[in-house]
């Protein structure tokens, strides 16, 4: 080892990245940190984390459906729906982050990887190919309806458990945003004449 400018020995520089690191998980999925500064008991937090991870998986599925339909939309309403689907995707990205952060706040582990999400989600995956616009919109509306029902059920369970933070989040952030998005895309299925006779 070489002497530094102040007489201290320093280790030789090693600018090679350390990769291929292996370690055990520090927290298993489905568990919560037991001893943490939170007023809710570990059993309440674990129950809420389970419900929120289901909502997260379904919201990630909806988010990704918006991007798929953004890429694959076609027809006379292409421009409007192409932009709207991408706007809703961006909004769902924020909602997904909000749910994942709530799970972490409660001491849980958020589901994150696509394969894990696909296994957990209750929203059916669309086919890989392109579908007609009314089918794309119908799929999105069904997914929104499912998530809105989940929000209602979680809010009720959170209220019963005294989990005001989760109750507020699912109603104020997730439910209201899904209601609004559902209304926006649902209007594209209303049959209206373009020209009055």
What does this structure look like?
The chain has a single domain (37-187), classed as Ferritin, CATH 1.20.1260. By secondary structure, the protein is mostly helical. Helix 1 (42-72) packs antiparallel against helix 4 (133-161) and helix 4 packs antiparallel against helix 5 (164-186). The longest helix has 31 residues, at 42-72. The chain is built from five helices and two strands; from the N terminus they run E-E-H-H-H-H-H. The termini are far apart. A hairpin with a 5-residue loop joins strand 1 and strand 2 (9-10). It has a two-stranded antiparallel sheet.
Give a quick rundown of the structure.
With 197 residues, the chain is mainly α. It contains five helices and two strands. The radius of gyration is 23 Å and the shape is globular.
Task: Could you tell me the CATH topology label.
Answer: Ferritin
Number of helices, counting only DSSP H or I runs of 4 residues or more: 5
| Sheet with most strands | 2 strands, antiparallel
Q: Tell me the radius of gyration.
A: 23 Å
Shape: globular
**CATH hierarchy class name:** Mainly Alpha
Class based on secondary structure composition and strand pairing: mainly alpha
> Unreliable runs, pLDDT <50, ≥5 residues?
none
End-to-end Cα distance, whole Å, is: 91 Å
Return the domain count: 1
CATH H level, superfamily name: Ferritin, core subunit, four-helix bundle
Explain the layout of strands and helices.
Layout: E1 2-3, E2 9-10, H1 42-72, H2 78-105, H3 114-120, H4 133-161, H5 164-186
Antiparallel strand pairs: 1-2
Helix pairs in contact: 1-2, 1-3, 1-4, 2-5, 4-5
């Amino acid at each position: 080892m070489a002497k530094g400018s102040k007489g201290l020995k320093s280790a030789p520089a090693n600018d090679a990245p350390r990769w291929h690191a292996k370690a055990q998980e520090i927290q298993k999925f489905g568990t919560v940190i037991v001893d943490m500064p939170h007023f809710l008991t570990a059993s309440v937090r674990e129950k809420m984390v389970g419900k929120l991870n289901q909502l997260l998986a379904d919201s990630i599925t909806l988010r990704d459906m918006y991007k798929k339909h953004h890429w694959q939309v076609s027809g006379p309403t292409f421009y409007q729906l192409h932009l709207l689907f991408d706007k809703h995707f961006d909004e769902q990205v924020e909602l997904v982050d909000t749910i994942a952060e709530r799970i972490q706040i409660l001491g849980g582990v958020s589901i994150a990887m696509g394969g894990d999400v696909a296994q957990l989600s209750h929203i059916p995956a669309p086919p890989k190919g392109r579908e007609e616009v009314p089918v794309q919109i119908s799929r999105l509306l069904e997914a929104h309806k499912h998530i809105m029902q989940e929000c209602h059920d979680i809010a009720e369970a959170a209220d019963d458990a005294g989990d005001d933070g989760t109750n507020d989040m699912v109603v104020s952030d997730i439910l209201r945003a899904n209601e609004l998005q559902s209304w926006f895309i649902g209007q594209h299925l209303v049959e209206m004449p373009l020209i009055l006779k």
